[in-house]
Structure formats: structure tokens, C-alpha cells
Specification:
151 residues, mainly beta, 8-stranded mixed β-sheet, 7-stranded antiparallel β-sheet
């Protein structure tokens, strides 16, 4: 069994677990960050890609959610609850930020060997920062499960 942390989220908590890969759990969604893919159970709507430099060397892939992420109720959270700061969970770096009037977001810094460098989770999307040449494919696995592959 891996380690886990919980972060304050709108009227609840987001649970982040590490067990060979990073698993992010909300009341209405589960996201798994793996080396070459991202699995999403629930909420996936679509994705868009945007180059973030003039040469096209880097891009961000926005995975848009159909509905905002709902926090897990306090009764279901058994881990240490974090309210602000930078942490590590296995080889992953995690930065939790709470901005007054704007909301919260969590930045995940991925270890070497991942096909994306950073992932940022907000209430309505997940942003993946990667090389501009990466191709993105979405596989529908049924029952609300999608697999985003980076090649």
C-alpha cells in the first residue's frame, strides 16, 4: 500500500495516493497519472492542445471536465490533511496552492521518464505540459473511463 495525502478542496478534500503511479481521487472522479498515459474515470469531456512557444517545441494539453471536481467528504478522509505548501510523495513533487477569491489548484511535478513534465489540476480541467511533438490519443474504455495516451 502506498502513501497518501489529502488537500482541502471546495467543500471537501482531494486525496492523492502514490503506489507506483499517482492516483488523484475526488468524489466524482478518479485520475491516474502514469508514465505514458492518464486514466480518467468520470467527468472527461474533451481535450485541446496549445503550443506555448513560437517554435512549437512545448505544448500544453488541457483535459476539460464535464463538471467541476467535487471534494470528498471529511468522514471519508483518513490521511493527513494539508492546507498549503510543497510536498513529495514518492518520486512526485506536489505543490498545493490556495488563492483567495480564485480557488485552489495542485501542481504535480513528474519524475524523469514521464512523457509529460508537469500536470496542473484545477476544479474544471487538468493541464499537461509536454513536448510539442507528442501525439495525443483518447481511448474510450466504457463505463465513463477514458485513457489519454501520449506517444
Amino acid at each position: 500500500m502506498g502513501r497518501s495525502l489529502s488537500f482541502e478542496w471546495e467543500r471537501g478534500f482531494i486525496r492523492v495516493k502514490y503506489d507506483r503511479e499517482l492516483i488523484i481521487e475526488a468524489e466524482n472522479c478518479k485520475i491516474t497519472l502514469s508514465q505514458r498515459e492518464i486514466d480518467i474515470e468520470g467527468l472527461f469531456m474533451n481535450y485541446t492542445e496549445h503550443f506555448i512557444d513560437k517554435r512549437g517545441d512545448k505544448k500544453v494539453v488541457y483535459i476539460n471536465f464535464a463538471f467541476p471536481l467535487k471534494g470528498i467528504s471529511k468522514e471519508k478522509v483518513k490521511e493527513l490533511i494539508i492546507s498549503n505548501g510543497d510536498f513529495s510523495l514518492g518520486p512526485f513533487g506536489i505543490s498545493y496552492t490556495k488563492l483567495g477569491g480564485i480557488g485552489v489548484y495542485i501542481t504535480f511535478y513528474l519524475p524523469p521518464g514521464f512523457l509529460y513534465e508537469t500536470a496542473v489540476l484545477t476544479r474544471d480541467k487538468l493541464a499537461l505540459f509536454t513536448l510539442g511533438r507528442r501525439q495525443i490519443y483518447v481511448l474510450d474504455e466504457g463505463k465513463g473511463k477514458k485513457k489519454i495516451l501520449l506517444i
